[in-house]
Design brief:
13 strands, Rossmann fold, 7-stranded parallel sheet, alpha/beta, about 15% strand, 2 domains
Length: about 425
């Protein structure tokens, strides 16, 4: 489909679908966020709605194959975010806000406004950090939703501070911990993002906001693409909704290399980050650990690592990709870095985990797994023998799988609830 073609629609719309509406998506390519966000686009197109997606060329083909119209995004002027090289909270906050939030915001605002003027959408839907898209929609007085494809990350009473891997607070001291941490993280983000955000808002005729997070708070809906059964309970804002995860495999996960287990042994699936996090050495130690055990191993390296970079023993297969929806029904355990997509798919399939979290939201996902008894977390620097011990512990204790299965039942109910589409069609 060319960029100037109309999106694919069908005359026979699904039962219960509302009259066709026009949606404008402004999406960023943050690696693991792409499959769930594109899954949202695809579901609306399948229900007969018109969708246009402003996104960079790296996902243009995926947009077109979803049936939506692609509009090229203004390139992000910030350098590539290499967060694995950063050591202090200050440096991480500065680099993250610049690369993912403030540097691309002016281009996003201009792109969103131009698209609004061209297609007159009923709703703008933006990636959770696409501040410019939100500002553009607000400037044109078009309602906007944001997509949050992970556990709830914004400050909320009762929610452990994002990125810390902390368990929920208990007692007065724990609640004080959370208040202090929420205040500190808000001040840190505001230090690097608030002035630039308000300058862009002023440029488009909008009043200033008190905190950077307030821009997300102005959304019609904050659509949290996970299960409330996975996240920790908290007092979320009135516009936040858990709508269930999107379990779609990424577009690059192709091939039938491993669609069933080999022989009678247990199958361990190893799935690390789809973006580079300096994790080759960790992946090798995991492979060595699996190779030392009486199991079958399948390592999917994804686009970030070449399979040839990993030396595998005889009982471990290393492939660039394999659709996890085909592998997980046969898996006994998943070893992962803790990305939300991999974790939630494993739990949905009732498969326990060993998590070696690297950064970003991965420690938060790990603690949600361990708090529910659905797996074990070990350090990313753990030795092969320590990783092998964790794998042996989880495989040897049926309670981990039972806990994962209980989580999976709740997650599946949320996936099948239709809440996502109902919220988006409810404008």
């Amino acid at each position: 489909m060319d960029d100037d073609e109309s999106p694919r629609t069908t005359d026979a719309r699904p039962e219960g679908a509302t009259a066709p509406r026009t949606y404008l998506f402004t999406l960023t390519n943050a690696g693991g966020t792409v499959p769930p966000e594109m899954g949202v686009v695809r579901r609306l197109v399948e229900r007969g709605h018109r969708a246009t997606v402003v996104a960079d060329e790296s996902i243009a083909d995926q947009v077109r194959r979803s049936g939506a119209v692609h509009l090229p995004a203004t390139p992000n002027p910030a350098p590539e975010l290499r967060d694995w090289e950063l050591r202090s909270p200050m440096s991480i906050a500065r680099a993250t806000t610049d690369s993912l939030m403030t540097a691309p915001a002016p281009g996003q605002a201009a792109d969103t406004i131009a698209a609004i003027d061209a297609i007159r959408p009923d709703l703008v839907v933006a990636s959770s950090l696409a501040l410019g898209a939100m500002i553009g929609a607000e400037a044109r007085r078009v309602p906007f939703d944001i997509l949050i494809p992970n556990a709830y990350p914004l400050p909320a009473k009762g929610m452990p501070p994002f990125g810390t891997g902390m368990s929920p607070a208990r007692g007065p001291l724990g609640r004080a911990r959370d208040r202090l941490a929420r205040g500190a993280s808000t001040r840190l983000i505001d230090r690097f993002a608030l002035a630039k955000t308000n300058a862009l808002r002023a440029e488009h005729g909008l009043v200033p906001i008190a905190h950077t997070w307030d821009q997300m708070g102005r959304a019609r809906r904050q659509l949290v693409l996970t299960s409330s059964a996975f996240d920790f309970p908290a007092e979320l804002p009135a516009n936040a909704r858990y709508v269930g995860p999107i379990l779609d495999d990424p577009a690059w996960a192709v091939g039938e290399a491993w669609t069933s287990r080999r022989g009678d042994g247990r199958l361990v699936l190893v799935a690390m980050s789809s973006t580079f996090q300096d994790h080759v050495d960790c992946l090798q130690r995991i492979t060595d650990a699996v190779g030392s055990l009486p199991v079958h191993g399948l390592v999917t390296t994804g686009p970030a690592v070449e399979p040839g970079a990993i030396h595998a023993p005889a009982n471990v297969a290393v492939v660039a990709s394999a659709p996890h929806r085909l592998v997980l029904p046969h898996a006994d355990l998943v070893v992962t870095h803790g990305g939300h997509g991999t974790v939630i798919k494993a739990l949905a399939a009732g498969v326990p985990l060993v998590v070696l979290h690297h950064g970003r939201d991965q420690a938060d996902n790990a603690v949600r797994v361990t708090a529910r008894g659905a797996g074990i977390a070990v350090r990313r620097t753990a030795s092969a023998s320590r990783i092998a011990m964790a794998i042996t512990d989880v495989l040897g204790d049926p309670s981990y799988r039972k806990s994962a299965q209980r989580m999976g039942e709740a997650i599946t109910r949320d996936v099948e609830s239709g809440a996502l589409v109902a919220e988006l069609e409810g404008i």
